[in-house]
User: Fold this.
Amino acid sequence: MRYLPLSETDRGEMLARVGVRSMDELFADIPQAMRAHGLPKLPRHKGEMEVERLLSRLAAQNRPAGAGPFFVGAGAYKHYVPATVDHLIQRSEFLTGYTPYQPEIAQGFLQYMFEFQTQVCLLTGMDVANASVYDGSTACGEAVLMAHRVTRRRKAVLSGGLHPHYAEVVRTLSALGGDTVETLAPDVRATEDLLAAIDDTVSCVVVQTPDVFGNLRDLQAIADKAHAHGALLIAVFTEAMSLGLVTAPGDMGADIVVGEGQSIGNALNFGGPYVGLFATRAKFVRQMPGRLCGETVDAEGKRGFVLTLSTREQHIRREKATSNMCTSSGLCALAFSIHLALLGEVGLRRVARINHAAAVKLADALGAVPDVEILNDTFFNEFTVKLPKPAADVVAALAAKGILGGVPVSRLLPGAGLDDHLLVASTEVNTDDDRAALVAALQEVL
Amino acid sequence: MRYLPLSETDRGEMLARVGVRSMDELFADIPQAMRAHGLPKLPRHKGEMEVERLLSRLAAQNRPAGAGPFFVGAGAYKHYVPATVDHLIQRSEFLTGYTPYQPEIAQGFLQYMFEFQTQVCLLTGMDVANASVYDGSTACGEAVLMAHRVTRRRKAVLSGGLHPHYAEVVRTLSALGGDTVETLAPDVRATEDLLAAIDDTVSCVVVQTPDVFGNLRDLQAIADKAHAHGALLIAVFTEAMSLGLVTAPGDMGADIVVGEGQSIGNALNFGGPYVGLFATRAKFVRQMPGRLCGETVDAEGKRGFVLTLSTREQHIRREKATSNMCTSSGLCALAFSIHLALLGEVGLRRVARINHAAAVKLADALGAVPDVEILNDTFFNEFTVKLPKPAADVVAALAAKGILGGVPVSRLLPGAGLDDHLLVASTEVNTDDDRAALVAALQEVL
Amino acid sequence: QEEALLFELGRADATGVDFDEPEPFIARLGTLERTGDIGLPGLSEPEAVRHYVRLSQRNFSIDTGPVPLGSCTMKHNPRLNERMARLPGFADVHPLQPVSTVPGALALMQELAAWLMEITGMPAISLSPRAGAHGELCGMAAIKSAIAAKGEAATRKVVLVPDSAHGTNPATAAMVGMPVRAVPVRADGTVDPAEVAKLVGPDIAALMITNPNTCGLFERDIAEIARIVHEAGAYIYCDGANLNAIMGRARPGDLGIDAMQINLHKTFSTPHGGGGPGSGPVVLSARVSAFAPLPLLRTGADGVELVEVGADADEARPFGRLSAFHGQMGMFVRALTYMLSHGGDGLAQASDDAVLAANYIRVGLADLMSLPFGNRLCMQEVLFDDAWLKDSGVTTLDFAKAMIDEGYHPMTMYFPLVVHGAMLIEPTESESKASLDLFVATLRDLALAARAGDSERFTGAPYYAPRRRLDETRAARQPVLRWTPPAPIAEAAE
Amino acid sequence: QEEALLFELGRADATGVDFDEPEPFIARLGTLERTGDIGLPGLSEPEAVRHYVRLSQRNFSIDTGPVPLGSCTMKHNPRLNERMARLPGFADVHPLQPVSTVPGALALMQELAAWLMEITGMPAISLSPRAGAHGELCGMAAIKSAIAAKGEAATRKVVLVPDSAHGTNPATAAMVGMPVRAVPVRADGTVDPAEVAKLVGPDIAALMITNPNTCGLFERDIAEIARIVHEAGAYIYCDGANLNAIMGRARPGDLGIDAMQINLHKTFSTPHGGGGPGSGPVVLSARVSAFAPLPLLRTGADGVELVEVGADADEARPFGRLSAFHGQMGMFVRALTYMLSHGGDGLAQASDDAVLAANYIRVGLADLMSLPFGNRLCMQEVLFDDAWLKDSGVTTLDFAKAMIDEGYHPMTMYFPLVVHGAMLIEPTESESKASLDLFVATLRDLALAARAGDSERFTGAPYYAPRRRLDETRAARQPVLRWTPPAPIAEAAE
Assistant:
């Protein structure tokens, strides 16, 4: 077996040195009654060529985003990632290194984490950021728990524009912890009255912008009212690219900003791995979950970096930890950081403008299709379309024509009476031909 | 432009420091009459996404070997190369390093070269090997020039089983240098009388095994007669994988062994880059062309490696050099060496047996097709088939059915009266289904 | 050479991407267009490549040398896994594109699930958790839901956790609102069923156990413990971090386990990547299998189906959703690639080799270093304590840092907490005999030096790393968690 | 840590690939089946990965730091190039599969050819040569064929080569059977037309010139030289190694050049890879364009056609075949990717930036180091000599080795031969201003140290590399060119 360096001779010599006669004897501590005898129901080992063929065959059954017109978003976005990014994260010393608990031999990891944290602070307009969590939705769940710790209250208010999966994650965690969640009704046109939901029992208000329907939200009034009642504003985003063009949540009074970083540096991956961004105000840093890298000096006085404030973490604090998380989204965060370094200020802003322009073009074109209505006043690169038919049927019909036309709201919010609503995204990867193909196909299937 | 780090501000500052007012002034040495003014006929720079699309579109117009049944050989072979090989050769320190003239900071290159040289010696049964040349055909051309230097004679005899491209390269180089070449007639069944061509005027006899028609050749008698007449035997192979199963040329009296190493570690690449292997007897080492790595020690007595015997080379010897070559096939040789290290003795022998078994299966199946004749008594993984129709037409008809069935001999030897001959190769990548598909399709098109 | 920070290298006007400005258009941003500079630095591509290549060279990794971290299972990460995970049919597929366009993705998840269930002997699985601790949360949530379904939510709330548990176990219990009660470990390093019997009762929700445990020992009384726990109406969560020891030798499903996470980045070779991403599928017993989170996979008439909504879940009673979408697909591809490559025979052999290697190290060092539970057979990791370093002036930390100078990543230190100055060594099956021999020889050399009083070699270590020891206290006391621009000279002078 | 040789690590029974033995079959090998051991060592995959990763870490490369090698143009190698070259439609295509199945490959070659002809202003090209020196051979063969076609093969045989030429130039002339006669370089580092006029005659076949030349200077009298050579019935071969200086500023086709190789691994960023593979397309003037080697590309009725046989070559009169198949396709893909990325504007800017960077280094060092031809404008590389090191006890070699300790690859040394102790520095356009500033500052620091008599810093250098200076004499006197197994102990004792 190509991955196992020991030969039968090696094994024999080593068993003799250990003082046992067989591999079986090594497992003497496992009572006979519980012993398994190999894994006979599983197939034998396979050569690399054969494995590659098997998996390639499975992969070929799926329709990749890049294979044709593609307008699917709703929390994960197709962007162009430079070849350099993927090349660099595959370097052995990044790919196969451990969590940097031994800082002397992990300065590469630690320095990029410090850089990543700074990039996230700048993007979100916040003071401190952790070195990433699993994804945007878990970041959102953790943010609510953190708000409970900070405010010592246990009730969260969720905007009706929050991605339904994110809201579900918050509700799941809250149910497990015995906390309360008030979820407002789905808010397609960003007209909900969040202010009314805020009172002195509320620990936090969770608002997404651009929201799941694509609307941009001004958070300042919500922040003001939340703060007046001793509550926190948690701002959420699912499209990190939007931060290059829209007002930073930190500039609108957010106390915690969480979001999905997949758009920068990371592939769609059928949902994971992604990279959860998590930032907050300096005063809350000790209540923040997740790994943190900090600057210090070594014994010779040279600048260096270490994991720090680990007294918040599970491996030190056990049941008093800020979270049970002990994994960040390492390589995905690295990809994010490299891609963002390549973009830089000018590149990010420009790509963000291209995204917005692409979506505006598409909205204008779709809006001109009879019986199709664009529901958004504002948006970044995604918006909601009202169709004369169930959106799921339309999407299926478009898929049959080779076009992935978006996400039916019914898939995220079944039974919400929004079956004729479709979320449509357009990014820098879409060409005019792609958009024309969608418009033409839509006209055919409606 | 993403590859150019200087900003306009940088350029301005640097021009000022240099003491010129403009870029134009930097080029003052180019007389005005000869000045070009940019490259206006070429398109503007393009983003990475756009370039990738353009090239992907071109690539998609070609039919990859892996896309269906594939039996094309005749000097380049489709084998399975482990993912590890390509990953490792893309490491920055291998990919973007210079020729190891500064050994203190190139021990990685030099050590693999030393290992590569040893691997080539073992495979070919020779004493010394260089660190690779461009490809098998140029290795063959250089071998003939080397034989002329060693023997101080200027006439080469080429077997009729030598790959016609290789023979052409020898004839081209010989014509340029004013040397003589006697090329025997195409020798489909390995029945030529090479011994008769050897006399005291001949510097070398060049014989390929497996030959271009797939026949295995016993070289010993040729070596004996050549040596008796003061001539050298140059043994050639185009399928390095065969060395895992057939007698090494060095064990049959060859004085120089050259061949194509593409089969091990390297992709088909539409003909290049490949890796030329070049080995000889110890006594001829100072007449050998190409780069050589040797073992030595550093100032602290530690084992280390350097380029050596460079007094043979063009940058030292100028017009007295053994060749004008100053490029090896670096990364391809590295890929060869890594793949061969992964194969090891057992892996190489086994894959070679699988190749042979695959070809035997195919020969048996094709031989059973009416009007099809297998012309080989012996072969490794490729053989010659006589068809009742022009092979080029058959190959075209098969291609239209999605099967790449082999190489018509007429493509290599037009006008040789072998238009109904087809070279067919089968390697470890072919499945029983592939072979059945070829047989079935052949029955249809004949 | 030092490597400057991105913020010191980069420039506001530099970029490593080329895009043309869009043609003029009317923005639809309302009043929410970002104004002012973000402050992000940019790099041209050559600068970016060099920056990150240089940073990478400051890291130790499996590919550069052994990383014998106990309970972390740092094994070889095959490159085929990486290649497969990047096939467009896996990497370039959106979680919300029509299910009809991703049958291969669902089939892959189903196949992975089948392998994991067969290896563990468990009847159900959730692929949703995004890391090991997330899997723990998932498993404990399933247990909590099962308790609630029996109407005992209000009364059955306490979790028993042995002293030797990972810190994640108590933290996870806290997240599901359950207080923790400790179970002492007996002298041989394992859990005593009698102790468990003393502690169980109608208030006990679950026992969280690790098997093989963090002392490198198989909990030989696990079946008896399970019987006691189940008879008391409680459940057993098993931390699966050490699954690499027992594939083909024992199946958690045969041991009475109700839920166990599987760290794909440990046993199944998905890369650690300096801290993630992980993936932590949870296998579930029949007792709790109804209570998995959304989304679920189900085999229906048309093949594999994806259940994303509780109402469609039939007999299942999902406790909610743990994260957006369907889990760590990229890691699933890698893990399945690894499993297909090994096959059942190779996986069992991997466990055998891993256990053999740990024992080989044990016997190689037993005469010089101290084994807290005696020189007895261990599983995939061997636990030493620091008794042998007493009065040497060398601590476990010093010893570990000196390993760096010898070309090794330190072993796991000061864990488990049940022994003093723990050194937990797990070589995995990926090291050759030559590598193991060199490791033993090097550690013997170090151990002899420590005993001989050459303490400077240790207390000052590492000497040959990119950095000497770092001031962690300073980092925590005066946290500098992000780069800030240096004050302009004029300002600084004020 | 040292890294053992593959032969010391590997084992005869180890392998890193898994294949099943074929089912029994009757071999068709006649008497020629290999018997006995080959002696090849094998490694499992984890061992192989570690071996080669560790080896790689002992190399310096562009990605890790500047490589300012004059006349080698070590510029950034974009990763997009690598990705494109690995598209199955390019990498997994056989040179002899039916031409009808590879239209995209031919179109790519045609496109590359069009770009190269436009950049150089030349009307014809051969893509066949596999490296720069192979391209020289191709160009000189074309010239020789043109001479033969005029019936002057017997009389016109001498090649004029300036003193400052690369060693390949005379070696190439030798391969086409032409003796070399030297052209002295005048005091300003360029070729004097008057000298050429003195040397030309009916025996002269060609002048081989390098422009910009290896002193970093543009041959400003090239047009006059070309006129003289052509009037004498001879041809001009130009070494294109320094094309990176003049894209968009001068076109060889406008200068009277008859043939010039283009090193795709210099100007067009295909990776050096520690010595190859290269690629050396040759552009040809109308005078010699009929005499390119096979295969040829031609635009026919159905698009691009591949001409593989002389008889099909129409008006062309190919001189033969230089190698099997069609050339370095993998390099063509990379080079075209690079060109499309840059566009005409970016290529011209690259040359401008490269020349600017060289001059910036020149002015940064001119006061400390000596410029053999005065402190005047240079092209893409700047040439210093060792006059300034006189009596310092430090040689050019010492100085270069000391650069290693500062994190740099040495510059080109002792070349060109026309100056004493040459140091030829080419930064390329890939270095940022910060990088150039640091380079200048570091070299100034070194230069001041050398002048101050701190010779030990130089003569013992490098101190901080994987190896100290290596004994090259020993390597050449007692060549050990391959590993041989150590003698068995019994045998050694005899």
Notes: The longest strand of chain B covers residues 232-237.
